[in-house]
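User: I'm curious whether this sequence folds into something compact or stays loose and floppy. Could you predict its structure so I can see for myself?
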Amino acid sequence: MNPYIKNFFEKLLEIEKILKYSVEILIEFECLQRAWLYLQSIFAQNLLSDSLSFEKDLWQNIDSFFKSTIRSFIKVPLVHKIVGREGFIS
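Assistant: Here's the prediction. I'll summarize afterward.
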C-alpha cells in the first residue's frame, strides 16, 4: 500500500461506499420516475372506474412520495445527504 494513502484509506472506503449507494439509489429513482410518468398520465385523466379505488389510493401514496422526494432533491441537491436520511429507504 502506498504510504501516503495509508492515512486516508478508511475515509476513502467510506466515500466509495457512499458513492456506490448513491448510484444505486439514483438508478432506482430513475426507474421510479419512468414508471411515475407512465402512471401519472393514466391517473391524471380520471378515466378509471370506481372499482379501482384501491389502486387510486395506492397511486396517491406513490405520487405523494415521488413529489416529496423531488422537492427534497431540489431543496438539497446533494444526493448523498438525502439518501443517507433515516427512513429514506424502507
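Summary: The longest helix spans residues 9-43. The CA atoms of residues 33 and 70 lie 10 Å apart.
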